[in-house]
Amino acid sequence: MKHIRDLPEIIPVFPLPGALLLPRARLPLHIFEPRYLQMLEDCMKTPHRLIGMVQTRDVPANQGGEPRLHAIGCAGRMTGFSETEDGRYMITLSGISRFRLRKEIEGFSPYRRAEVDWKGFERDQGDVEKDPRFERAHFMALLQRFFESLDLSTDWDSLRDADEELLINSLSMLCPFSPEDKQALLEAPTLITRRETMVTLIEFALHGGSGKERMQ
């Protein structure tokens, strides 16, 4: 799937607050709810094997009682799959492209499906993005303070060696930001904007929401 025309107009959507998928990144998921087990079985029968990850919105549910969805999500192709002895699935989604949700499809499916628009996200299927303004030393120092404040550990050598897209996108997905903050990271139009958004979120958290200090 190298072009928008190759992507389907209707895909299953998986609303999972806090679970962020980005283009060219991988997201492991543990699936056990019956309706999503059905979603995976149906997905595997399609040629594209796409699932759309979407954040839910903090607003009243729709008439069916389901939480409302954000307008923009990211579709991933199922590239890893294993089944446990008790019938649960461990899968890996590889991010393909963001999309704009046009409308949900009503029907008898136990899981949610949506008609989506891929236009405007052509960059997602292009080459790896670069961030020429990325100052790794300053960013890593800020990140270390953030991890220490949350008592988190990581493989710092791997982070220092990772290229900027892998680093920024992986951190966007893994850091304990709120669902609304992760939505902002998803919607960032470029890698530069995503990195700037992340720096703002980290600084805001480090300074108790005061936002007084900024990276020099």
Automatic annotation (TrEMBL):
Domain (Lon N-terminal) ranges: 11-206
InterPro entries associated with the record: Lon_prtase_N, Lon_prtase_N_sf, PUA-like_sf
GO biological process: proteolysis
Glycoprotein is among the record's keywords: no
Keyword Hydrolase found: yes
Molecular function GO labels: peptidase activity
Keywords assigned by UniProt, alphabetized: Hydrolase, Protease
PROSITE patterns noted in UniProt: LON_N
SMART domains to which the protein is assigned, alphabetical: LON
Pfam families: LON_substr_bdg
SUPFAM superfamilies, alphabetized: PUA domain-like (SSF88697)
Coiled coil: none
Protein name listed in UniProt: ATP-dependent protease
